[in-house]
Specification:
The complex is a heterodimer of chains A (about 325) and B (about 250). Chain A contains 17 helices and two strands. Chain A has about 325 residues and is mainly α. In chain B, helix 4 packs across helix 5 and helix 6 packs parallel to helix 7. The longest helix of chain B is centred in the last third of the chain and has 18 residues. The chains are: A mainly alpha (about 325), B alpha/beta (about 250).
Amino acid sequence: MGKRLSTYGPFIPVLALYVIIFLVGKGVQGMWQVMAMLTFYCALGQAFNIFLGMTGYVDFGYVAFLGVGTYGMALSITYLAHQGMTGPAVIIIGFLLALIFPALLSMAVGAVALRLRGAYFAIATIGVNEGFRYLIEGAKIWNGSEGMIFTSELNQVLGRDTASGLSTFWADVYLFIIAALAALVTLHFMRSRIGYALTALREDEDAAKVMGINVTKYKIIAFITSACFAGLVGGTSWALKTPYVFPPEVFEIHYTIEAIIIVLLGGAGTLMGPVIGALIYGLSKYYLSIILPGFQLLIFAPIIIVIIIAFPDGVMGVVKQRLRGTSLARFIE
Amino acid sequence: MSLLKLEKVTKRFGGLVAVNNVSLEISEGERLGIVGPNGSGKTTLFNLISGVHIPDEGRITFRGQDITRFPPYKRAPLGLGRTFQIPRPFASATVRENVAVGAMFGTLGKELSVNECLELADHYLDFMGLRAHADKQAGTLTPVEKKLLEIARALAMKPRLILMDEAMAGMHPKDIDKMVRLIQEVSDRENIAVVAMVEHIMRAVLGLAQRVVVLHQGAKLVDSSTKEALNDPRVVEVYLGHPPEE
């Protein structure tokens, strides 16, 4: 039991935070959509952290994985509905496609770009999302620039009541589960040799190689895992919650930037960092836009700069260092 | 049979021949010093053995296996460890985790669980006198502690051969003596061969190496017992230049 606790102990506070977010959304009048937004940011940060946080590599094209995940779900619902298929199996196949599409794309991108180091990788990934968007629009794949609207198909597959319950409530619950799963996978990586290999290559890739670590292999593992979770987030938040998909929206680099900010604010490579980052980012973005509509970004930018200066390793990075050696340390990663 | 064998290995960088037709053999548990002035090809030779560079000509065999074209990460699990001249710890990880990484991806890597690797790490931290720092971030260690950590990390790989890149440079003579003693002890006990690269700390060579290879302009100049090599007039000439004409 003691060993179990030290292995999975750090998952407890993360899960507790997710439960609190969920309960606030459910219990406080009018808070559900705010909490749903926070959950999206948590899931996005938790997914991106597996790659950005653990390897130190920045992928500017990350949103493309959310985009193809969204298309995976959209295609499943649209085509299977046209085939006359109904029931939850359609959604399950949708989730599978939302895993397979980003997995394939990340293998293709990773096989080329992950051979590059640090900044060169970042440069190589700029434009993956735009490229994919123009491919879909230009080649008229999946309805091209017209996008896909599948509200009626979703109604047909699940029935009107279930479909509307999915959009207003259950899709957000799935996001909670995806975020928690991503956290669990992160913790599992941290406790296994994958995590040690990733830490080593993040700190010094040459030294890691000489110590017997196949750095390309471990980078690809982290990349594909992170991409798959991104696909699930896209398929859930952008397809089930809102049953339409337009290329310019789901390949928007803005989401990559948000994910980077969340991970860095909270503490790259820590387990709880993405949740803290998502809370800081999501709440300040939401309330600033209410208090100072139109000026939110003007206030927001200096806030982020101040936090980064005060917590250069992210909030959780600093907390983790402070707690090292204390009895609380086993609950924080 | 020799542990590591280099046969007529040559490496060129453009027009510069950094390592020129060098052959070399090291047996199990042997301690060899590689000596030579700046620019004599020591570092390139090290990089050829550890896989950072691939030779243009020649063959490298380790434990009977041809490793000439192996990438570094395939050489380490065969039992080839290396330390760097300027220590390169994984700064954000703890001292214990640094050493555990060595155990995880070394010769025993696949047989040990993560927890067993952490235990093995503690064993080597004890041995190098770093146990008190086990939970510190490796980046916060002093330079001498970082050097000890490098060696602990290499030892945790349970290697058959360790390449030590100027391990003693910049250290206090007292620390050098201590380090030489530690390396000798572990090399004897675990039958680990050591190839130490030394530029000018002859104190370390004398204490540690049983045999010395002197490199000069990329080629092997002398290969003999330590005492003989250091008294060889050719070696003196490489370091100090021609004696003045009478």
